[in-house]
User: What shape does this take?
Amino acid sequence: MKRVLLLGGRGFLGRHIRAELAPHMIVRSPTRQECDLVETELPALADLVDRERPDVVVAAAGRIVGSGYDFTQAHAVATAKLIEAMASAAPGARLIRIGSAAEYGAVPHGVAVGEGYPGVPVSEYGVSHLAATRLAELAGAAGRLDTMVLRVFNPVGAGMSAGNVLCRVAALIRAAVDDGADDIAVGLHDTYRDFVDVRDVAAAVLAATRCQPGPQRVFNVGSGRAVATRDVVRSLADVAGFTGGIRDGSFTPDASRSASVPWMCADIERGNRVLGWAPAYDLRTSLTALWHADRPEPLRPPAATRPRAETARPGAQTARVGAEAR
Assistant: This one.
């Protein structure tokens, strides 16, 4: 069986990745005390890699809040350190790095963005992830390591960070019911996002561990659908059985940053063709998993008359850009 060193295995994505890989491979996931990619010095990281002798290293560690310095350390510097450690201690291993759709920056409305689209991030978070991706690409192109990057769009599911907008909405719904309120106030811009089930992300990692090496190193991991964020919030309320109103509220800093990227939709053709991967869960199933993670029953039977979420997907309604010629 393949040996996998999973870094960040205690986080939201990491826990699901571990659960997906464990039946098929020997997975070792060090605690943060054993290995913190930011704090651990290069010699100690190289020693860890040497001791574990992995066939695959999955880098799922990172951060979603902080300063530009924090993001750069957690993503770009940590990736550079890991590449050096693997090149010296396990040059035959594959590095699979979890990247982000934030690497693309603003994308024209209606476009399903392909991996070849020129990334122009609009946030420090996106810049740090793009720098890490380029480091991985350069290491692979130079023959130092077999590298892959999975650009994850908006993952949804059980165990999400409390700072995520959908988790905040879930908390608002619970508070409204407890207080007897008829509505909730949510600060949302008119944005569209590509939401992908975290279990589909984990399945993409498994597929990446199994595929043969090739020239393509970056793969989008999304649903291939853009959904209006307002509709996703309403869908979560329906899953929860909350029939109250949802009105505009004050914007949080992350909501204001989100407005600079009003549209995001993944072209997932490359992952399907090269990795043999495709998403299996629909959005309502993902939202149900999110809600039931810490509240086993809906507040009341879900409303049956809510409109379907407004979506756009590649095809007649959505242009594709950045995909390689074929």
Observations:
- Residues 68-89 form the longest helix (22 residues).
- The longest strand covers residues 94-100.
- The two ends are 35 Å apart (CA to CA).
